[in-house]
Structure formats: C-alpha cells, structure tokens
Amino acid sequence: MNVGPVVALSGGVGGAKLALGLYRVLPPDSLTVICNPGDDFDHLGLRICPDADTVLYTLAGLANSETGWGRGGETWTFMQALAALGGESWFRLGDGDLALHVERSRRLAAGEPLSHVTENVARRLGVRARIVPACDAAVRTTVRTPGGRLPFQHYFVRDRCEPVVTGFDFEGAGDARPCGAALAALADPSLRCVVVCPSNPFISIDPILAVPGMADAIRAAAAPVIGVSPIVGGRAVKGPTAKMMRELGLDVSNRAIERHYGDVVDAWIIDSEDAADAAGFDRPVRVAPTLMRTGADKATLARAVLELAAEL
Ligand code: FO1
C-alpha cells in the first residue's frame, strides 16, 4: 500500500533523524511518532521528557544538531544563575528549553494528560505530525549495575554511561496503558507501515514495548513492521548501544538486533556495510545506507523503509 499513514517508534537522536526523514517524504498529517517515555524524569520540580522533546525539536527544525538534545541557538542564563545558587547543574537546561519544561509541568499539574500536552506543543511548534508519548503514566527506566540500580539520567548523563549494565527495569510500565492516540494510529485500517527507528533497543524502544498492550497492538497492525538496525559494522552509530550489548553478553551484530525484537518486527533494513549479514536473518532484509548525516540521507532511508513495507 503506497498511501496511508505511518507510525514510527522513536527514542532520541537516531530515532528522531529517521522520524524527520519520514516527516519529509510523507504527506502532512500522515505520521504519528510514538516516543520513549523511559528517559522522562522529574528534575528541579519540572517534568523533563528528553526523547519526546528531541523528536519535537527535530521535526520543528529547532533541534541542537551538535548535542542531539535541547534547542539550537540556546542561551544559558538560567543554568548559570542556578549554579551560582548551588543548584543542580549537571543536567543542562537552556533558557528556551526551560520554557517547555515549565509550561508542560504547569499543564500536567493542572491535570492534563501528558499525551495531550505533547501533541499540543507539537502543533504550537508548527509540527504537522502527531507526537505522542507511549503512555500518559510515568514509566522510568532504571539501569541495573553491579553497584546497584541507577535512575536513567544518572546513568546516562551524570555517570556518562560508564557503569557496566546488567539489565533494565521500566518502573511503572505495569500500570501504564498505551495512550489513546498511539492505539488509534496503530489500529488504523489504512496504515501503511510501522517503523522501529534505529534507536537503542534497550533504553529507547523496549520501554515503549513494555507498556502492556503496545507490542500486541503493533503485531495486530494492518501493516508491516519495519525495523532499521542501529548497528553498523559491529558498532553503534551513537550512544551506548554496542557497549550495552557487550555487557549483556550479546554479539554486537545486526542478527542480535533481529533476535532481540523477535516477532514484533516483520522485516529489517541493515546498512550496506553489513550486506553479508542478510544471509543470516530469519526475516526479509533490505540493504541500504542507514547512516543519516544529511537531510537527503534521512529522506532516502525513509523511502527505503516505505518501499520495503510496500514489497511485503
Ligand atoms: N544529555 C547530556 O548528556 N547532558 C545534558 O546536560 C543533557 C541535558 C538535556 C536537557 C534536556 C533534554 O531534553 C535532554 C538532555 N540530555 C542531556 C539528553 C538526555 O539525557 C536524553 O535522555 C538522551 O538524549 C538519551 O535519549
């Protein structure tokens, strides 16, 4: 089916790049991005939603392309003043970014569901895609290490992903339910495809799949589920994916990624550098450039995903 809406599951930087590629090649209003809730945390009395915000800023053209998080062209007066007061400054909040956290926290405190706030912010930023968290309830990724369990942002930012990882917990997932907009998008009979973006499987996509009902809704979707591997040439494009795979005793390979997702994903796209891996896959595989350096790269990969879905 070469028309119809698309749903993408995304974490942070890598996922947001492919989400942008899909956003560029699809008609307006035909993309729903289901975002990882697991990085969210309460900090300085504010609700911070990093992966949803990375997608928001990326599709709005406001993202900081150097860091991959927060806004471009930021000023840091708030952070400097906070540090001077002895406040926590390890997690850097730019002045423009701060406005989003303050406004979102105000609306959550007024009782508005997180998905409504996120969708409304996307529209205010001029984004013609639906951006929703996997669920309205709080899901918090904690990282198991030999030294005990770490809240995600302590592991990722404060400790710079250095602790050895032995496992993950997604606290609150058991009580969560997929938000209505996510279920509606997945249940659309005219759905063209579901895309598992090249994000970290453990800390970006698994928290989405851990929300009861989400994986079943994806399997039941009326369209193929296409995964794009985050591994290229035995290493992760960005972030701690490869380090985590090694620490978990997994091969740092595309095949290990396929095994990790099992029957949630129907077919895969792996990078041209790893074409030889295709023979070892259980599911259909398309080889294509998956490194996204430019806008054109993102659009080209998005088209490869849509073409593979149309072939299944
Ligand atoms: N990541 C960092 O490594 N250092 C930071 O100071 C930092 C601040 C920050 C502020 C807002 C936001 O939305 C994301 C931020 N991130 C920062 C990224 C954050 O840790 C995300 O969870 C990662 O991008 C993983 O997806």
Structural class call reads alpha/beta
CATH class: Alpha Beta
In CATH, what is the homologous superfamily? CofD-like domains
Order of helices and strands: EHEEEHHHHEEEHEHEHHEEEHHEEH
Low-confidence stretches: none
How does the SSE layout of this entry go?
Elements: E1 6-10, H1 13-25, E2 31-35, E3 41-43, E4 46-48, H2 50-60, H3 77-84, H4 95-109, H5 114-124, E5 130-133, E6 140-145, E7 148-151, H6 152-158, E8 167-171, H7 180-187, E9 193-196, H8 201-209, H9 214-219, E10 225-228, E11 231-232, E12 235-236, H10 241-247, H11 254-261, E13 267-271, E14 285-288, H12 295-311
Parallel strand pairs: 1-2, 1-9, 2-5, 9-10, 10-13, 13-14
Antiparallel strand pairs: 3-4, 6-7, 6-8, 11-12
Helix pairs in contact: 1-2, 1-12, 4-5
Bound molecules: ligand FO1.
The site of ligand FO1 has 16 residues, from α2 and α6.
